[in-house]
Structure prediction request, 345 residues.
Amino acid sequence: MPINLRSDTQTMPTEEMLEAMRHAPLGDDVFGEDPTVNRLELLSAQKLGKEAAMFVSSGTMGNLCALMSHTKPGEEVILEADAHIYYYEVGGFARIAGLSPRLVPGINGIMSIENIKAALRSKNIHYPPTGLLCIENSHNRGGGSVYSLHQMNEICQLAHGLNLKVHVDGARIFNASVALDVDVKELVKEADSIMFCLSKGLSTPVGSVLVGDVSFINRARKARKMLGGGMRQAGVIAAAGVVALEKMIDRLKEDHQNAHYIGKELSETAGLDVNLESVQTNMVYCNIGQLKVSLENFVQELNKEGIQVLPVEPDKIRIVTSRHISKEDAIETVKVIKKVAANYL
Ligand SMILES: *Cc1c(COP(=O)(O)O)cnc(C)c1O
Prediction:
C-alpha cells in the first residue's frame, strides 16, 4: 500500500461512520424532514456557537452559498491573495455571485490588520461597494497556517466597525482550533458565518457545513437550492458527519505532530526548502526548486517508492497528514524523500 499524503480529502469513513450511515433515520431534507441532517445541523450550530447551520455537499458550495447570502452582485469581496475561494473554486464568486475580488497580500496566507485597512475603500463614485471580508483559517496555500484568536477578533472588529460582515472559510477550522488549543466556538465568536469541511481530516466521505444566524442560513438555503444542492435523504451522508464532530476532532493533534516531524526533517535536508513557520497544522509545503529534477519527475520517483504527494506548481510538493498516516509512515516518508532528493543534488 502506498503512503498517500496527497490530501486529507482522501480519508475513508471509519467503521463507526459506516455503521451510523447504515442505521441513520432518513427523510426528505428539501422538506426539512431528514432527522439525521437536522441533528448534524443542530450539533454544528452548537459546536460553533451560532444560531443555525446548513449541510452542503462540498466546501465550495458552502462558501458560494455564503458569498451569495451576504452580498449583492456588483459588490466587492475582500480575500487574501492566495485564498481558496479565489484560487480553487472556479471563480464562482465572480461568475455566480457576481462579485469582484479585492485581494490582500498575506504572509503564509495570514493578512495583517494593516494590509486589510489599506485595502478598504473610501466612498468614491468610481469604486464598487465592499460587500464582505473573508478569512481562511487554517490557510491552505499558506501552508496550513492559522490565524490566532487575537487576529480573528481584531479583523472581525475592524470589519464590523465598518458594517462589513465576515465569512470564515474554515474548511479546516478544527485543525486551527486544535493547533491553537482554543475552543472553536471562541475562535469564531466574532465571525458572522463559517464553512467547515467534514470530508477532510474529520474523515467523512462527503460533506461540509455552513453556520451563521437564522436569517443568513435561511437565505443560504435558497442559494443552495438554486445551485442544485438540495439533497433528499442526505442523512445517509450526514450520519458520518455526526460521528466526525463527536469523535474525530481531538485526534487531529496527531496529524499535526506527524506533519511537524516531516516538515522539520525536510527543512534540514540538503536541496529542500520548507518554511517551518507555516507548518502549524497538518500540511507541509516543500520547495524542491534547488534540485536538478522537474517537479513531475520528482513526484514520479517518490511514487515508485510508495510515497504519494501532490505537485504544486511551479516547484513545490504538498504533503498532508491524516488519520491514515501513522508515525511510522511519517518516518518512512522522510526516509524516502531524503533518499530521492539526494539523487538530484
Ligand atoms: C478543501 C477546501 C475548500 C473546499 O472544499 P471542497 O469540499 O473540496 O469543495 C474550501 N476552502 C479551503 C481552504 C479548502 O481547503
